[in-house]
């Protein structure tokens, strides 16, 4: 029988994969010339398209939702769309490091919400780990912060987007107690995509006429940061609380900044690289000493892919 520690190692490996995956998001957005709302719309619609072939085993659950679940799914999807719109928009106005470092506030917002809504328990080591990671995040983005011009506007957009995704994650933690990751993600992504479709129609953005390279970027965004990032993080809510999962965003500035240095030519100092090590150390402390541990699963229960039946917690 699979031991709990072995399951835990698999969970943490997937958690790390999710961090790497979401770190590519800012790079792909920078590569695209399309409006950010169009990028997000096709990113999400293509994600649903990728998930569609795996929908059959989940068809009964997906259609047996009560009014409250539909309402919360709608709210979660709109918050996700708002997050994408604001955060992706910030990438056009400020640096990758500056925009992603503001996302470091997400765990704090979610921790506060979890204590208030779910009576979550925290300990001193968790707070120390979060503090260390936040300190490292501030160092990474400090050199890029400005107090005027478009950079300030971009930082404000990133902050508002962070608040939106915190609400999205808290709603996800509540909904995932009664829904599989597939059903939750499919409906939330679809709601967010439709929200963008209405927004783009109202704003008069073109729905077509994009180059093949743009469609390739849309597909990359759907597969890498959405399926292997957001989907995976939502799946991990079965084994970790929302605060722990959200700690993954503290690793995003590290890898996003490295990728921006390698692929976009953005500067990266020795101090920022050292701060990356500090961030990862803080995230490790938070997870290592967190009270919420991965739950054991049966030995024959596979890690849930988009179309597979999920293992149940016991």
Largest sheet: none
Computed CA radius of gyration, to the nearest angstrom: 19 Å
Order of helices and strands: HHHHHHHHHHHHHH
Poorly predicted regions are 292-305, 307-314
Number of helices: 14
Kindly give the count of domains: 1
Shape summary: globular
Helix content range: over 70%
In total, the number of strands is 0
What is the terminal-to-terminal distance?
14 Å
Helix/strand structural class = mainly alpha
- Proportion of residues in β-strands: under 5%
Average residue pLDDT: 80
Describe the protein.
With 314 residues, the protein is an all-alpha fold. It has one domain (19-53, 61-290). It is built from 14 helices and no strands. Helix 7 packs parallel to helix 9 (149-175) and helix 10 crosses helix 11 (212-236). The longest helix is centred in the middle third of the chain and has 27 residues, at 149-175. The protein is globular and about 45 Å long. The chain starts with a helix and ends in a 26-residue tail after the last helix.
